[in-house]
Design brief:
It contains seven helices and nine strands; from the N terminus they run E-E-H-H-E-H-H-E-E-H-E-E-H-H-E-E. The protein is of the alpha+beta class. A hairpin with an 8-residue loop joins strand 1 and strand 2. Helix 1 runs antiparallel to helix 2 and helix 5 runs antiparallel to helix 7. The chain starts with a strand and ends with a strand.
């Protein structure tokens, strides 16, 4: 039995390394089980149109996300490391990364007859893990497609600001309220926005992307003028 004691906050009662490992394993199992419940809920939603059933499904889905979010909070309170592998940074050309990520999500755009307006004011390179960068860009493009209407144009740009490379992805979709903006990077937060064609909504994806950007020495930010007024995600990275 390990005797090392771990904590991330002097005000929190420390736990042993073995306890932290147990809780981490438990939370992983719990999240897998609840994720299965969420998939069942989504399947039922697509096959029923009864108002009462829809209300029950909404309630169940909210409770599921609440369980997942509470698990994340418990892990953070206990100082359990949940982040992914450390980034392996190298010089990465952002225009090439964007073109690759857009091609990866082209099937989504085609399905909703959406187009991409790609603008490269310059061709900066950044210090970043190329695989993690692709994960971030793919998630942001997928998010823009899901929350935009059929036929929408999604604007993507990359530019250089002094010592920073900036990638922006803007959509004309459902937008974010002030509450949504405050919690958009919280894992499993229940936001008011809904996808425009019933696509599944990964309520932890943007949070993972924000942490990934931070691990790469960058920053991910969101802005919106409000509900139904679109949204812009801005990824800032250190120039190579």
């Amino acid at each position: 039995m390990a005797s090392e004691r771990l904590t991330s906050d002097p005000g929190v009662e420390p736990v042993t390394a073995s306890q932290a490992e147990y809780l981490h394993t438990f939370s992983h199992d719990l999240k897998n089980r609840v994720a299965g419940l969420l998939e069942v809920i989504r399947q039922l939603r697509s096959s029923t149109d009864t108002n009462g059933t829809s209300e029950l499904l909404d309630f169940g889905e909210r409770q599921s996300f609440a369980l997942l979010r509470r698990t994340e909070e418990a892990l953070e309170d206990l100082g359990v490391r949940t982040s992914g592998p450390q980034p392996k940074v190298e010089r990465t050309y952002l225009s090439e990364a964007l073109v690759e990520a857009i091609a990866d999500q082209q099937y989504r755009f085609d399905r909703k007859q959406q187009s991409i307006d790609l603008e490269t004011r310059s061709a900066p390179s950044a210090v970043v893990d190329p695989r993690q960068l692709k994960t971030i860009l793919t998630a942001l493009l997928s998010n823009a497609s899901k929350f935009s209407p059929t036929g929408a144009t999604i604007k993507v740009s990359v530019r250089q600001d002094v010592a920073t490379a900036v990638i922006e992805i803007s959509d004309p979709g459902v937008g974010l309220t002030a509450f949504d903006l405050e919690h958009v990077f919280d894992r499993y937060a229940w936001l008011s926005s809904a996808s425009t064609a019933g696509e599944s909504q990964g309520r932890s994806t943007l949070a993972r992307c924000a942490k990934m950007a931070f691990a790469n020495g960058g920053r991910l930010a969101a802005s919106s003028a409000g509900a139904n007024r679109g949204c812009t995600f801005s990824l800032q990275l250190a120039l190579a």
